[in-house]
Specification:
Chain A is an alpha+beta fold. Chain A is built from 7 helices and 8 strands, in the order αααααααββββββββ. In chain A, strands 5-4-7-8-1-2-3-6 form an 8-stranded antiparallel beta sheet, with helices on one face. In chain A, α3 (about 25-35) crosses α4 and α6 (about 80-105) packs antiparallel against α7. In chain B, α2 (about 20-40) packs antiparallel against α3 (about 45-60), α2 crosses α4 and α7 (about 135-145) packs across α9. The longest helix of chain B is centred in the middle third of the chain and has 31 residues, at about 75-105. Classes of the chains: A alpha+beta, B mainly alpha. The interface between A and B is large, with 48 and 68 residues.
Chain lengths: ~250, ~180
């Protein structure tokens, strides 16, 4: 069985370029589909990957030790399990609350606000790592439109869970009290997922609940709306991404 | 510390069982290859470090994606790293091209980057050097610069069919050299 006219004979000459990632996505897709169903072409493709990996040997270089430390720390935190993470999160929350109580008495309202922000940040960090380290994580990329060509984002969710996260980068700063608003689209219908603002480098994280019929939505987008958000998207669209497709 | 006695497959089984030490062993075994390749392609040490992190976190989160029937773990890991690095440089190129459209001016080549390309090129000549120069050039442009064969044809001013043939013959020859162990 094959997905291409001409079968293996038309696929094989393209396998070296596929192995070197030298094809356009539209050219690569039918070849990859063919590899799923053809063991002989898969073996040939694997042989090209093997040969190209020889080139990597010749440019090998030792990464800084900090990369290994970060990786192992993340794996250890994940291996400790959700229960341990919840315990740590509770402990972190408790410690932050305790610090908050002591300092708010001593330093007043301004400092308490700062610590509130710190606590929210720590909670967000934990929640985000929970997503990232899940073996069932699904990622849907969002790309910047012409209004924000450098922007990009990712929708993170875990099938079966209601919570999801939107992580965005390089969005332009907003003025005049305007906000970014995230939307899900299904045919002509759009529902709001909430509003957010970015930090000075254009980053933001938005956590929200997915609707129960989430898998019937086709697209996600982010628009610029007046302060407080809008009932429906009316402003310039800055990010857009399909909800269908692979998880990478 | 590296578990030198364990095969990649055994270490992957332990990673599936959530053993961070097994991930560290795979890292010790392959991180220099992944980092070197990423650095050569993306030409930015910080981004290369992030890419190494991402590759190994993917192994940690989804070890079952590797299928032993589809070649060695090493080749699979490096192909994932290559794919991510090429994605990154292509995205960067699209951004530059968009900026050029906006500003109406092309970015001038960075002499430091060009010099670096030459140095890096010299490092891989022991294997690539066995290819005829026209094949070597297209393999370098595809594998280390992340160009598609259409982009290579534009860069070299050669017909697309010629570039496709050179790339195919070049990689087939690399395969023959690799399998003969004649390097």
């Amino acid at each position: 069985m094959t997905t291409l006219p001409g079968g293996c004979d038309s696929v094989r000459p393209e396998l070296p370029a596929l192995a070197a990632d030298a094809l356009e996505p539209a050219e690569a897709a039918p070849l990859r589909a063919h590899l799923e169903v053809c063991a002989a072409c898969r073996a040939e493709y694997a042989a090209y990957l093997e040969a190209l990996s020889g080139l990597a040997e010749e440019v090998a270089a030792e990464p800084p030790p900090s990369v290994r430390r970060r990786l192992v720390a993340a794996a250890q935190a994940d291996a400790a399990g959700p229960a341990r993470r919840r315990e740590r999160l509770l402990l972190l929350g408790f410690a932050a609350a305790l610090v908050l109580a002591i300092f708010s008495l001593a330093q007043g309202f301004a400092l308490r606000q700062q610590l509130d922000r710190l606590q929210r940040w720590a909670t967000d960090e934990y929640e985000l790592w929970d997503f990232v380290l899940s073996p069932n994580l699904v990622v849907r990329p969002l790309r910047g439109t012409e209004a924000a060509p450098e922007a990009y984002g990712r929708l993170l969710f875990i099938p079966g869970r209601q919570r999801a996260a939107l992580v965005v980068n390089r969005l332009p700063p907003l003025e005049g009290g305007r906000v970014y608003q995230a939307w899900l689209r299904r045919d002509g219908e759009r529902i709001s997922l909430g509003t957010f603002q970015t930090d000075e480098s254009g980053r933001a994280r938005l956590f929200f609940r997915l609707p129960p019929d989430f898998d019937t939505y086709q697209e996600m987008g982010v628009t610029i709306e007046p302060g407080g958000g809008s009932a429906g998207p009316g402003g310039v669209r800055v990010l857009v991404g399909s909800l269908k497709g692979g998880s990478d | 510390m590296t578990d030198v006695g364990f095969s990649d497959e055994e270490l992957l089984r332990r990673v599936t069982g959530r053993d961070p030490a097994a991930l560290a062993s795979l890292y010790d075994r392959y991180a220099p290859l992944v980092y070197g390749l990423a650095r050569r392609i993306v030409r930015d040490e910080g981004q290369a470090e992030d890419l190494v992190q991402e590759v190994f976190l993917r192994v940690w989160n989804r070890p079952h994606v590797y299928d032993q029937g589809r070649g060695s773990f090493r080749a699979w890991l490096l192909s994932m790293a290559h794919h991510l690095a090429v994605d990154l440089v292509r995205r960067r190129r699209r951004e530059v091209s968009y900026r050029e459209k906006l500003t109406g001016s092309a970015e001038t080549p960075d002499p430091f980057e060009e010099a670096l390309t030459e140095v890096d090129g010299a490092n891989v000549r022991s294997l690539l050097g066995r290819l005829p120069p026209d094949q070597r050039r297209v393999v370098e442009l595809a594998y280390f610069e992340g160009l598609t064969h259409r982009e290579i044809a534009e860069r070299l001013g050669e017909p697309l069919g010629t570039v496709k043939t050179r790339l195919r013959l070049g990689i087939m020859k690399l395969r023959a050299l690799y399998e003969d162990g004649s390097r």
